[in-house]
Amino acid sequence: MSNSVASGIFSINDIIATDTIYNIPRYQRLYVWTNDQVTTLLEDIQHACFTERPLFYLGGVLIVRTSDTLPHFDLIDGQQRFTTLWLLCLTLGMELSGFLEVEEKSRLTFSIREDVTRYFDAIRKNKEFKGKLNGQLEAGSLTKIIYAKNLIRGFVATEFKDQPERLEKFRNYIRYQVKVIISTVPVKTNLNKLFEVINNRGLQLQHHEILKSFILSKITSDK
Predict the structure, then answer these.
(1) Residue 133, Cβ neighbours under 10 Å: how many?
(2) DSSP H or E run through 2
(3) Average pLDDT over every residue of 195-222
(4) Which pLDDT score, from 0 to 100, does residue 113 have?
(5) Are the C-beta atoms of 95 and 171 separated by less than 8 Å?
(6) Which of 50-78 are b and which e, b meaning 16 or more Cβ less than 10 Å from the residue's Cβ?
(7) If you average pLDDT over residues 168-193, what whole number do you get?
(8) What does DSSP say about strands 6-11 and 178-185: parallel, antiparallel, or unpaired?
């Protein structure tokens, strides 16, 4: 078993081709994205798609393997983006449906938030959710998720109304051009400590830092 972090760039299509399942562990915070954050992501992807940008970098995802025999992982960092992406693929359907599930099980699960897991199972199967939105811990996360799902559906319905070819282009762009950097940390990593560091001191790369790294990677001369 490797003791180093392994990273790779994956498209949604790459993930669809696998049978990986990602779990939100118990020490993760609730889903907290606001309408503004969800709308910004949707508009950014839409702009990238129709201005013919070859790649849309969604961000980084940090995972750790939880099974020696199955491709099951805990999602340590990146759950807000990953959950939003799951909801977007749910709304767009068609070829993106493979991102939602593996062998009729949700590709994204939640360790201690049963209402969220049951909600995902219900909407994935296009069934009515029977849970209760009360003051419990699960409800706080579920409320934000429901808001995000409804916002995404409204966005797609408004932006692509009676435009099937434009919608198909958007769907294909998400499948092949939206990419994430997935990093897998060693199994014996102190996850509680790592999660604390990520939340207290970790910062996402800025756009200019990503661009700088990309440019430097193209320089082959020692000079």
Answers:
(1) 14
(2) none
(3) 59
(4) 77
(5) yes
(6) eeeeeebbbbbbbbbbeeeeeebbbbbbb
(7) 84
(8) antiparallel
Write the Ramachandran bin of 216: left for phi over 0, alpha for psi from -120 to 50, otherwise beta: alpha
Report the C-alpha gap between 103 and 90 in whole angstroms: 16
Neighbouring residues of 68: CB distance < 8 A, sequence distance ≥ 6: none
In this structure, the strands spanning 108-110 and 21-24 are parallel
Residue reference for tokens 């606001």: 34
Structure tokens given for 63: 């995972």
**pTM of this structure:** 0.79
Burial 4-18 (b: 16+ CB within 10 A, else e): eeeeeebbbbebbee
pLDDT tens digits, 129-173 = 455 544 444 456 688 999 999 999 999 999 999 999 999 999 999
Which residue is associated with the tokens 């769907």?
171
DSSP state of 22: E
Q: pLDDT, tens digit, for every residue of 57-111?
A: 998 888 988 888 889 999 988 889 999 999 999 999 888 999 999 988 899 988 8
Check if the beta carbon of residue 85 is closer than 8 Å to that of residue 58.
yes
In the chain, where do the E strands start and end?
6-11, 21-24, 56-65, 72-77, 101-102, 105-106, 108-110, 178-185
